């Protein structure tokens, strides 16, 4: 029996550990990461399908999506779906809009076919890039925790696998990946990190920096989960009868817990989403730690919060 190439074996092992019972879909763009993921899932899984998303942003994208779908059917994946999306009118830049459209399409297909999970092909290198981008944005520990292994129906089984190994696996299996030109376009921040910033760090600090960044993200994510659980309990304790927040309870909390409580409360009020920033939370925290009689704080969504006696309350617009 021929020896299985180490890269193929590593990806199959990672996928086997992550597969839940039931139908699993693989999100496949045709790139090396998702091709290797789909091939591994087909090998180790009992019920595996494929979804490829056509964003319509590049010439020939519809044809490429059909080719990916045809390949999926040829190796026995079922069901195989092509989801065509539009990014027009979606918030954020091109990357953010495409991501929003893609995840919406994947969720819709998974719901329609009754899939237990959708597997994404993000690798250890993608995780390291995500951490560097978060550092550049000053995103705090939530950003530094990187991409979760599991969030809802979405799973990322390859976060411990190097990008180089997905390419080696494709070569070993005779798969020819598509090279997305956006991945090498310096107009995109992630491309600049991939081709300039991260290689510079590897040259300066050694190749282990990629794995160390990804490992740090996992450790920070575990810490965040604990802090979030403590904050959820603290939020319940801080609520007053009218769902305002008791300033005395807030003042007794450690800063890392209190700011999470304030962030969660703002989301409960309806101020969630990317527009809710650390500046908003800092302004709410100042009602507790630096009270000088300041007026109401405006949050995203037209929400206003003020300190009234010994409570934080939502006030009319």
UniProtKB/TrEMBL annotation:
It is an enzyme of class 6 (ligase). ATP binds at residues 29-34. It is found in: Cytoplasm. Its main location: cytoplasm. Residues 24-194 form the tRNA(Ile)-lysidine/2-thiocytidine synthase N-terminal domain. Its EC number is 6.3.4.19. Keywords: ATP-binding, Cytoplasm, Ligase, Nucleotide-binding, tRNA processing. GO terms for biological process: tRNA modification. GO terms for molecular function: ATP binding; tRNA(Ile)-lysidine synthase activity. One of its GO terms (cellular component) is cytoplasm. It catalyses: cytidine(34) in tRNA(Ile2) + L-lysine + ATP = lysidine(34) in tRNA(Ile2) + AMP + diphosphate + H(+). Residues 245-312 form the tRNA(Ile)-lysidine synthase substrate-binding domain. The N-terminal region contains the highly conserved SGGXDS motif, predicted to be a P-loop motif involved in ATP binding. PANTHER family: TRNA(ILE)-LYSIDINE SYNTHASE-RELATED. Ligates lysine onto the cytidine present at position 34 of the AUA codon-specific tRNA(Ile) that contains the anticodon CAU, in an ATP-dependent manner. Cytidine is converted to lysidine, thus changing the amino acid specificity of the tRNA from methionine to isoleucine. Belongs to the tRNA(Ile)-lysidine synthase family. This is tRNA(Ile)-lysidine synthase. The gene is tilS.
């Amino acid at each position: 029996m021929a020896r299985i190439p180490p890269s193929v074996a590593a990806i199959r092992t990672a996928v086997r550990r992550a597969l839940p019972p039931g139908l699993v879909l693989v999100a496949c763009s045709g790139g090396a990461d998702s091709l290797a993921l789909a091939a591994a899932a087909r090998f180790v899984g009992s019920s595996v399908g494929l979804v490829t998303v056509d964003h319509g942003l590049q010439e020939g994208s519809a044809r490429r999506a059909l080719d990916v779908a045809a390949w999926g059917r040829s190796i026995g994946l079922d069901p195989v779906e092509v989801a065509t999306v539009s990014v027009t009118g979606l918030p954020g830049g091109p990357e953010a809009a495409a991501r929003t459209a893609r995840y919406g399409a994947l969720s819709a297909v998974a719901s329609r076919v009754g899939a237990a999970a959708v597997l994404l092909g993000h690798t250890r290198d993608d995780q390291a890039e995500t951490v560097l981008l978060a550092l550049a944005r000053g995103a705090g520990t939530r950003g530094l925790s990187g991409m979760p292994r599991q969030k809802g129906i979405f799973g990322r089984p390859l976060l411990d696998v190097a990008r180089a190994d997905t390419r080696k696996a494709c070569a070993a299996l005779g798969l020819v990946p598509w090279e997305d030109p956006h991945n090498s376009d310096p107009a995109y921040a992630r491309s600049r990190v991939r081709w300039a910033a991260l290689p510079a760090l590897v040259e300066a600090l050694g190749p282990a920096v990629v794995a160390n960044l990804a490992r740090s993200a996992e450790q920070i994510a575990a810490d965040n989960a604990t802090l979030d659980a403590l904050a959820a309990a603290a939020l319940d304790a801080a609520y007053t009868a009218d769902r305002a927040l008791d300033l005395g309870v807030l003042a007794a909390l450690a800063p890392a817990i209190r700011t999470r409580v304030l962030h969660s409360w703002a989301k409960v009020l309806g101020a969630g989403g990317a527009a809710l920033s650390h500046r908003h939370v800092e302004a709410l925290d100042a009602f507790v730690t630096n009270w000088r009689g300041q007026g109401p704080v405006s949050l995203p969504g037209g929400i206003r919060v003020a300190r009234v006696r010994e409570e934080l309350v939502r006030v009319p617009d």
